[in-house]
Amino acid sequence: MTLTPYQIVVPAISLLLIAYAWSLVMRQRKTIWEGVLWTIFWGAVGYLSMFPAELRYLSELTGIKRNETAVTVTAVGVLFFIVFYLVVRIEELSQRLTKIVRNDALRNADLKDQRDDR
Amino acid sequence: MRTAAVIPAYNEAKRVADVIKAVKPQVDEVIVVDDGSRDGTADVARDAGASVLSHAENCGAGAATMTGIEAARQRGFDVVITIDADGQHDPTDIPRLIDAIRGGADLAIANRFGQKNVIPLIRRAFNAVGNLLTFVATGIFLADSQCGFKAFGPTALKEVNLKMSGFEFCTEIIREAARFRWKIVAIPTKVIYSEYTLAKGQSFANGVRTAAKILLRSFLR
Questions:
Q1: Which of B1, B6, B55, B59 should we substitute to test contact with A (largest number of A Cβ atoms within 10 Å)?
Q2: I want to staple B137 with a disulfide (CB 3.0 to 4.6 A). Which of B49, B73, B202, B218 is the partner?
Q3: Dihedral angle of Cα B190, B196, B201, B204, to the nearest 10 degrees
Q4: Which residue in the set B57, B70, B138 is minimally distant from A33, CB to CB?
């Protein structure tokens, strides 16, 4: 079996991302469950890049056989990713605003430490 | 164990005073987080004897809950009870949640489906979807993952850090429990649905948005 550069680079990236996910799990920034989900997703990406012939089943299932259709589907996928990325960015901005509002509420509350009363 | 009750409230001037009066005998302090209400909720809560924190803008139930938890943390409380401001929960159930914390639980969650309660079918259906999404996102299945009536023990209170602003925070709490391996205990409780509480409930569109956020977040982390 002769491997193309694509079949080496993509599985390597997938492995890297899986290792990164588990390092986040070790640092308690991801749960074990999320680590498993990531492993399944990137494992599948790495596997399919190494054995693209496995996609023949998908081709039969979806009916995408012509290259032009595949390009259109890929373009829709890219657009979907862009929207996904924008949603994430908006979500981050919203979180920053919320943090400002929350900190402001805490600052103005003039809280008294109950530990003093013990 | 010094206990505070956190009540996130948005436009709940009609109900919040009764809830505060019923909760007060069960805890050491009641903290109401007014989430940008326009109906005088903050004044009503203050008059009813609660400590009030006010968000300048409406940020969502998750953000209000986290503000209340942070306030309780700063004030040195050991246990925090979160309870809805619309009066759907019975505050006499609070001691049972605190007992669960005393018994070693880090997080005690009320289970509205654990005893005979009159719950509309649509609510049961929404809750089932919420439970399923929570399971997919966290790997933990609970019979009532979306209930706002909870108790945080000392460990959970120290570690919890909610980032989600809206109603998806209920799932995020379960995610925090999975992340820090808290011991969760579900306590069957009463629930009182009225026309008011049902009218304040979530719309289908809001539910879909919440579900999308839960899945998005669980994958992006």
A1: B59
A2: B218
A3: 130
A4: B138
Nearest to B213 by CA among A3, A87, A19: A87
B205 touches chain A (CB under 8 A): no
Contact criterion met (CB < 8 Å) for A106 and B74: yes
Please tell me which residue of chain B has the smallest CA distance to A112.
B75
pLDDT tens for chain B, residues 1 to 221: 899 999 999 999 999 999 999 999 999 999 999 999 999 999 999 999 999 999 999 999 999 999 999 999 999 999 999 999 988 899 999 999 999 999 999 999 999 887 787 788 888 888 888 888 888 888 899 988 888 999 999 999 999 998 888 888 888 899 899 989 999 999 999 888 777 776 665 555 666 677 677 666 666 66
Domain assignments of chain A as residue spans, ordered by start: 1-65, 66-107
Q: Which domains does chain B have, with CATH numbers?
A: 3-220 (3.90.550.10)
Closest by alpha carbon to B176, among A54, A33, A116?
A33
Assign 3-state DSSP to chain B and report helix, strand, coil percentages, each to 5: 45, 15, 35
Beta bridge partners of B79: B3
Q: Supply B25's token pair.
A: 């005998």
Residue showing tokens 């919203």: A94
